[in-house]
Design goal:
Blueprint (H helix, E strand, L loop, with lengths): L1 E10 L6 E7 L5 E5 L2 H11 L9 H11 L2 E12 L2 E10 L5 E6 L1 H11 L3 E3 L1 H7 L6 H15 L7 H13 L1
Parallel strand pairs: 4-7
Antiparallel strand pairs: 1-2, 1-7, 2-3, 4-5, 5-6
Length: 172
Amino acid sequence: MIEMKVMGIALDTRTGSPIVVLHDKENRKALPIWIGSAEASAIIRKIENLTVSRPMTHDLIINIIEKMGCEIEKVEINDVEKETYYATIFLKNNDDGKIIEIDSRPSDAIAVAIRVDAPIFVTANVISNGSVSTDSAKDEEEAQEFKKFIQSIKPSDFEKLLKDNDHHESDQ
């Protein structure tokens, strides 16, 4: 397992889909995971330390977990199959120390973990399958282009995404 942190949210220039980018502590590996706009907004809110007047979904999840006498111990992104990632949220029961495993989408697991500063771990299998290949000159060029793109991302770049999603959520 490799501990990773949220580097930020990017937008896929081809599809407009949000991507959460994780990186290891040494900034040697980056793992992009395509996510939904609601989850991207939740992650951006925490990165930007934006507050809302009422609890959003991921805040509600944490409130329920804590009221039930548990805490989030860690999150693991532990599998990828046909471009679908899988994660587990590990809860610790404060009464007996028992660990409870909850199946989750990585985007939700990440959004919950960053709210309570729980560590995010990624298996070596996911890292190797999620990495950009550097087997050919074209792949190397794409990898360098992606690295430049990731390094140029600023949280303010996604203000429009956040505003658009807030508008959409208020319609529901």
